[in-house]
Structures are given as structure tokens and as C-alpha cells.
Write a structure and sequence with these properties.
Blueprint (H helix, E strand, L loop, with lengths): L1 H18 L6 E7 L2 E7 L5 H12 L6 E7 L3 E4 L2 H4 L6 H7 L16 E4 L12 E4 L12 E7 L1 H8 L3 E4 L2 E4 L3 E10 L5 H26 L2
Antiparallel strand pairs: 1-2, 1-10, 2-7, 3-4, 3-10, 4-6, 5-6, 5-7, 8-9
GO molecular function: peptidyl-prolyl cis-trans isomerase activity
InterPro entries: Cyclophilin-like_dom_sf (IPR029000), Cyclophilin-type_PPIase_dom (IPR002130), CYP23-like (IPR044233)
Function: PPIases accelerate the folding of proteins. It catalyzes the cis-trans isomerization of proline imidic peptide bonds in oligopeptides.
């Protein structure tokens, strides 16, 4: 009897692992005023979505953007970069931000840490807003495009969940602005990854300070 149960559990675990999508080599870090959140992409699940979001990250599109929604146990949602940033966008950033992505819906479950695209009623209207799941949400499965998952930073997400909020329609929104000060990316397969990451961290930290100084001076 024990052998049968053990074998059954092994089969269940094997199937679960087989269903788990593989990460690509790129990693992205959002540096917020409450801590960092690092995530990876699922290019085999949502290739066009991953390409679009990663290009926006590389262009610095999410810098000075914010989380406009934090619903404890449900989602922390990043604003559309076209209206969520405090710094103005350059032509290349705006061109990419104005694109929409087809609805790449999959069998990947909406559980804590999953990255899922925001959209309107049109299934092909996803742009640059996306949610980080703060709990299991099976009602979103196969209706919203999953494209990645948080790797590090759950402690930051828990800080966000404890912030004061207000209700506005169907949205639960933070009272204080949760800013994505800056972002950076790296490749896990790069031999000089740690050195490049250290250099990029310092550069982006300096950029964040400069952007904030510019914002305070020109956009009070």
C-alpha cells in the first residue's frame, strides 16, 4: 500500500514539474522605494509578450513608473508606462509603449509571484501594465497572459501589502506612491554577470537620483 501511495505521489510531482515553465536567461530587477523585486521571463509560454516587456525594460521605460494598485492577497499592478512615469518619455520609449500584444493565454496557473499582463476587454489589448500575483487567482487562468515569475523580492511584496490603501471603484490603491526608481537587467549565462551587474547597479542608482532631481525641478 505504501509503495502505491509513494508511486502516486511521485507521478503527481513529476507531472507538476513538467508543467512548470522554464525561465529564459534574462533577469530583470525593479528598484522600488520599498525594496527590490527580481523576476524572470517565460519565453516559451508568451514569446511576444516577453519580447515587448523586455524591450521596454532595456529602453528604461519602467523607470519612474509606479504600482498604482496593491490588493493584498491578490495583485500588485504596475501602471501603464505612458501615464505612470514621472519622467518624460523619449520617442523610442513611446513608440514601444504604444504597441499592444496579442493575448498569449496559456495553461500556467495564476499563483503568488506570477507576472500577468493587464488588458481591457479586448483580449489583444495588453500594453505595458502588468500584475504581480500576491496570491492564487484561478479565475484569471487562461484569460490573462502569464509571462514570468518573481525570483527574489517576496519580502518587498509583503511590505507593499501592508501599506495603507484606499478603494477607488474596483481597485484597491496605495495611499502613498510606490515608485519604480529604476530598473536593470542581466543575463544569468554571462561569464561577467556579477561584475556587469555591480557596475550597472551603481550607474542606475546614480541615474535614479538624477531623474528624481530633474523631476522635482521641472515637474513639481
Amino acid at each position: 500500500m505504501f509503495k502505491i501511495v509513494a508511486f502516486s505521489l511521485l507521478i503527481t510531482l513529476t507531472l507538476a514539474l513538467a508543467d512548470e515553465p522554464h525561465f529564459g536567461s534574462a533577469r530583470v530587477v525593479f528598484q522600488t522605494n520599498y525594496g527590490d523585486v527580481e523576476f524572470g521571463f517565460f519565453p516559451s509560454v508568451a514569446p511576444k509578450t516577453v519580447e515587448h516587456i523586455f524591450k521596454l525594460v532595456r529602453l528604461g521605460g519602467y523607470n519612474t513608473n509606479h504600482f498604482f494598485r496593491v490588493d493584498k492577497g491578490f495583485v500588485a499592478q504596475v501602471a501603464d508606462v505612458r501615464g505612470g512615469r514621472t519622467a518624460p518619455m523619449n520617442a523610442e520609449q513611446r513608440k514601444e509603449a504604444e504597441k499592444t500584444v496579442i493575448g498569449e493565454f496559456s495553461k500556467v496557473k495564476h499563483v503568488r509571484g506570477i507576472l500577468s499582463m493587464g488588458r481591457y476587454d479586448d483580449p489583444n489589448s495588453a500594453s505595458s501594465s502588468f500584475s504581480i500575483l500576491l496570491g492564487d487567482a484561478p479565475h484569471l487562468d487562461e484569460k490573462y497572459a502569464v509571462f514570468g515569475k518573481v525570483i527574489k523580492g517576496d519580502e518587498t511584496l509583503r511590505k507593499l501589502e501592508e501599506l495603507p490603501t484606499r478603494k477607488e471603484g474596483i481597485f484597491v490603491m496605495p495611499v502613498e506612491r510606490i515608485t519604480i526608481l529604476s530598473s536593470y537587467y542581466y543575463e544569468v549565462n554571462s561569464e561577467t554577470c556579477e561584475e556587469e551587474r555591480s557596475i550597472l547597479r551603481r550607474r542606475l542608482a546614480a541615474s535614479a537620483v538624477e531623474i528624481e532631481r530633474w523631476r522635482m525641478k521641472c515637474f513639481p
